[in-house]
Amino acid sequence: MDEAVARYPSDHRRSAAMPLLHLWQEHFGFISEEAVLWIAGKLGLQPINILELVTFYPMFREQPPGKTHIRVCRTLSCAMAGGFELMENLCTTFGIQRPPDGDGMHNPITVSADGNYSVEFVECLASCHTAPVCMIGEQVHENVDPNSAANLVRNPQSAIRNPQLRSPPHPLEHRLIYKNIGRPDWTTEIDSYLRDGGYEQLKQALTMSRGDIVNKVKNSGLRGRGGAGFSCGLKWSFIKPDEKRPVYLICNADESEPGTFKDRYIIHEDPHQLLEGILISCYALNAHTAYIYIRGEFPEGAKILERAIEEAGAHNFLGKNILGAGFDVEVYVHRGAGAYICGEETGLIESLEGKRGYPRIKPPYFPAVLGLYMCPTIVNNVETLCHIKHIIAMGGAEYARLGRANNTGTRIVCVSGDVQRPGYFEIEVGAVTMGQLIYEMAGGLRPGRKLKAVIPGGSSAKVLRADEKFKLKHRQSDGSTIEREMSIDEIPMDFDSLTAAGSMAGSGRRDRARRFTRHGLGA
């Protein structure tokens, strides 16, 4: 408990409220009235400050679950693949009343009469390409056969249908961030990363001026990979070089948009790449503290990151006077607790401060000016931060040669639903069309299925109908523009083309705040 509290400034102990709630629930199974009072006293808060978290974040339980607790994903990809049938069969098998669906109750858990089993519906578990998905305890189970519910607990492997084998990168891919994903000789240990040249870009960055690093990122044209597509270098330049207040960096690892599962694989299989990107970014921004805000549904990912941080500290890549460069930096993992809105950057900051994740009004609360603890704060997505080390390695101008103008570099796209080969693909931005992605890379539609619509940027994005025609403007080599009508299959997979088609390329973090308020849940 004391170690968790020490990760936050002494005058902002409220930030430790969610970590303490997680620790209490992991030990006792649920959050009791005694827990609320004890944690409030520990942090010098009022009990209502703790209770409001328990009643807001779905992962915190006020009643004990069964000895074996099962969470079933009910969002789009899993619903299409049989998630609701899986829940029905689990309830029938264990004699459980079906949990409420969307009635606004905070405790949607139902427990079997003997207390051995409990179930609940949850939102996206970030494994949409292996739907349907559920969690037993803290273990994720993918490609579950809805008709094998009886075997799911007793013999989980027997309940898995059509297990997917890792396939080599598709010829249309350009693996940069994902170059180590799925490698048979690769592990998450730091020795594996160092053998592959890991942390060399951090060493290089520490010899550069902070201004040079920011300019490289600007020249690269890197746009945020979390959904908004805002210029990363421009965002960084909002931090004043002579800033007197503490500067914070937050890695947004709250990957909760249905249909999005790219960051999970970076965290689970290449955590040191992310950590190196964070450390370079901290140096460039003169930020001495970084927080990785990770989804509560990623317990294994949080453990992997904690181990990576410990290993990096042992090699003096973080901590005091890193690599003798006279720069101190600490990185901490902070777990969320199931609130979708915390993917929006200001809602995330509120949550990190130990409050409900209500988005702040912009202006005046632009994070680079008034962010965490009202200090300058940069919030970047997992994939965005990974690109930083490659920009240092390649140089901004060389990186900008990947992709197309104003849509540079590579980005990871996730495909799920009724296709033959659902999965993740890393492409040069704009080098692949929607049709190539669906019919070549993802293997086309499953037998008997006809394409009706595509959601290109998660559930927040506008749905593009297959029978629509889209008018997109294209810039010619001489600088002039022409307008061209195209089908959904011809749309290039880049930020600007998808925006021109009326949708978006990413997970729509900015749209989260609008939806949250429009539904009457925000201030």
Multimerization state: single chain
Question: Which residues sit in consecutive blocks of at least 5 with pLDDT less than 50?
Answer: 508-523
Count of helical stretches: 20
Q: Going across the major beta sheet, what is the strand order?
A: 2-3-1-4-5
Please identify the top-level CATH class of the largest domain: Alpha Beta
Describe the structure.
The chain has 523 residues and is α/β, with parallel strands linked by helices. The protein has four domains: 2-54, no CATH class; 68-159, Glutaredoxin (3-Layer(aba) Sandwich), CATH 3.40.30; 190-396, NADH-ubiquinone oxidoreductase 51kDa subunit (Rossmann fold, 3-Layer(aba) Sandwich); 403-509, Roll (Ubiquitin-like (UB roll)). The chain has helices at 2-5, 17-28, 33-43, 47-54, 76-81, 83-94, 149-154, 190-195, 200-205, 210-220, 232-237, 262-269, 271-285, 299-314, 345-352, 382-394, 396-399, 434-441, 495-500, 509-518; strands spanning 68-73, 110-111, 117-122, 134-136, 139-141, 248-253, 289-294, 330-335, 377-381, 403-404, 407-408, 410-415, 423-428, 453-454, 464-465, 469-475, 481-487. It has a five-stranded mixed sheet with strand order 2-3-1-4-5, covered by helices on one side. A four-stranded parallel sheet has the order 8-7-6-9, with helices on both faces. A two-stranded antiparallel sheet has the order 10-11. A hairpin with a 5-residue loop joins strand 16 (469-475) and strand 17 (481-487). Helix 2 runs antiparallel to helix 3, helix 3 crosses helix 4 and helix 12 packs across helix 13. The radius of gyration is 23 Å and the shape is globular. Mean pLDDT is 91; it is low at 508-523.
